[in-house]
Design a protein that fits this description.
heterodimer, A: about 500 residues, GMP Synthetase, Chain A, domain 3, seven-stranded mixed β-sheet, 28 strands, B: mainly alpha, Non-ribosomal Peptide Synthetase Peptidyl Carrier Protein, Chain A, about 60% helix, about 0% strand, globular
Chain lengths: ~500, ~80
């Protein structure tokens, strides 16, 4: 049962303050062998608010943040909520050259980063760049240690989440305080999280998945977080961490499920993992076979997580419920209504496949600087997801596939247009089209088809070298295929699906 | 020793670490760029250099640099 929190909580930063007052000694965060109690974290958040003030940040200013998983990320995020700035996070694995393209559309007031990105970003971006060094937390020493929580209005933006897209058509998702409060409280209710939960975070906090399923829900209900830098760094000790901290929940992506199935752990490693209720797997669909294999091997059920950056989690697939079966994405969370419709917006009957559309307080408030795109996807209060699904006779929802053209590699959404845009910077390239092709481990890998201009010769390695000048590692094509032409429809538009089926 | 030298060279180039800093006991925890994607890039570079194919199980068997040597020796 979740502790009673103040009613109508509009700023999640208030939850930390509440837990700091009612359970000051309770551990909020385990990180690198250190423990951080709620009261301690609350004071550190106040310190960072004073730090923000010293940098002359104002409420509503966008602060772009590229930090690795660590206490600094947690504090900067929560301080931004308390202060009233707009938090614009990027995955730590994104490279500086990639980040600068996104920042050119956002024009933040300030960028916070660490050593890895600092030397590049400080020369590439227009605004100030602050390097958060390893001794930053220890160096905080403001005398005054209180700060009042920012009181947001109806549509005050809390976060600006980046999404893969082209320079000309960016998708920067504006999420309000109201969106956040509605989404996170619904996740807590749906997943039955409470103050006794202990979440192990292995996914990057720069993506919305771990923010919306673990970081913020744990914060809201007074639970505990065990924070790792990444799954790959703790892969060998994964099960011993579960045992050591009595972890109750972990969120993963399909490539991590595959890694857990194939890493040669000894049986002793996972004999005592009863604390783990279930794991949640999202970002892309986990094959049913793997869901079943995982439960057979480890005795732990895997819930399918469905949601989007524009809405946060939208469904709950709760495997502890009696009669649960794997394969579906469950039922809608109580924060939203979900319909399956055809292209004319007619609601479809049970069993029929159509587009998933979503209405609720969790639907984002804008694409920053791209209202035109927002109006194309949010119509009459419903967000058209570009995903296909159906509902069965028991009311369970199923994800079928994507209508929109997106590559999901290792759980990361990549717009193929963003890659193709880079090809067109080369004089040698006449046409280019990237698609996602099935990969057993990554889910999808990137294959790019290139048509060269007649007078030019260029190798695949030269093309990849060009891509590395502009794109982060995970967006570099895995394969380049030279072709004579790329299939087009009557209007001249490239037929990505036809290329994929060929 | 030759395999070891070549593997160290590949590790150095793939993960941008100094060759002299590399030890056989190093794991992903010790090298910043050695994440899940880094492992795949490493595998791809090892396959090109040694003209081998790593099976899925072998990819996940690799926890340390020593594991890479052991697998390559097993493959002959």
């Amino acid at each position: 049962m979740m502790k009673d929190l103040p009613a109508n909580l509009t700023n999640l930063s208030s939850a930390i303050r509440y837990h700091a007052e009612t359970s000051p000694k309770k551990v909020y965060l385990f990180y690198k062998g250190n423990e951080y109690e709620y009261a301690q974290i609350d004071k550190l958040i106040n310190q960072i608010c004073h730090f923000y003030e010293s940098l002359e940040l104002k409420q509503g200013d966008i602060i772009s943040v590229v930090l690795r998983n660590g206490i600094e990320y947690i504090l900067f995020y929560l301080a931004s909520l308390r202060y009233g700035t707009v938090f614009n996070p990027y995955p730590y694995t994104l490279e500086a050259k990639d980040i600068t393209r996104y920042l050119s559309n956002i024009n933040p007031k300030l960028v916070f980063c660490q050593e890895r990105h600092y030397s590049y970003l400080k020369d590439l971006v227009k605004c100030s760049v602050y390097c958060v060094r390893d001794d930053f937390i220890a160096g905080l020493n403001f005398d005054v240690i209180s700060w009042n929580d920012y009181e947001p209005s109806e549509n005050s933006p809390a976060c600006l989440y980046y999404s893969s897209g082209t320079t000309g058509n960016p998708k920067n998702i504006l999420f309000s305080y109201k969106n956040m409060a509605a989404t996170i409280s619904s996740v807590v209710r749906g997943f039955k999280f409470n103050e006794n939960d202990i979440h192990l975070i292995v996914l990057p906090l720069g993506h919305t998945a771990s923010i919306n399923y673990s970081f913020l829900p744990s914060t809201l209900c007074g639970a505990t977080i065990v924070l790792s830098e990444s799954f790959w760094k703790i892969r060998a000790q994964f099960w011993s961490l579960i045992q050591k901290y009595n972890v109750t929940y972990v969120e993963v992506v399909p490539s991590i499920v595959l890694a857990l199935l194939n890493t040669p752990y000894s049986k002793n490693d996972y004999t005592n993992i009863d604390s783990l209720q279930f794991i949640g797997c999202g970002s892309s669909m986990l094959p049913l076979e793997r869901q079943i294999q995982f439960e057979e091997k480890y005795g732990i059920k895997v819930a399918n997580l469905y949601g989007l950056s524009e809405t946060g989690p939208t469904h709950i697939d709760y495997p502890i419920k009696e009669g649960w079966e794997p394969g579906s994405i469950g039922v809608p969370l109580d924060v939203n209504e979900v319909k399956i419709v055809d292209d004319e917006n007619r609601e479809l009957v049970v069993g029929e496949t159509g587009e998933i559309v979503i209405k609720g307080e969790n639907v984002f408030i804008d694409y920053y600087g791209n209202r035109e795109l927002y109006n194309q996807v949010v119509k009459n209060e419903y967000f058209w997801t570009g995903d296909l699904g159906y509902i069965d006779e028991k009311g369970k929802h199923y994800f079928v596939g994507r209508k929109k053209e997106l590559i999901i590699k290792g759980g990361i959404n990549i717009s193929p247009d963003e890659i193709d845009e880079i090809f067109y910077k080369m004089n040698e390239v006449s046409e280019a089209l990237s698609i996602g092709v099935y990969d057993e481990y990554l889910g999808e890998k990137i294959v790019s088809y290139v048509v060269l201009k007649k007078e030019y010769k260029v190798t695949a390695d030269e093309i990849l070298s060009h891509c590395r000048d502009f794109l982060s590692r995970d967006k570099i094509p895995d394969q380049i295929e030279f072709v004579e032409n790329i299939p087009k429809g009557h209007s001249g538009k490239f037929l990505r699906k036809k290329l994929g089926s060929n | 020793m030759i395999i070891e030298d070549k593997v160290k060279q590949i590790i150095s180039e793939t993960f941008k670490v100094r060759r002299n800093d590399i030890t056989m006991e190093m794991t992903a925890e010790d090298i910043e760029l050695w994440d899940s994607l880094g492992q795949l890039i490493l595998i791809s570079n090892l396959e090109k250099e040694f003209n081998v194919i790593f099976e899925l199980e072998e990819i996940f068997e690799i926890m340390s640099i020593r594991d890479i040597i052991n697998i390559l020796e097993r493959k002959g």
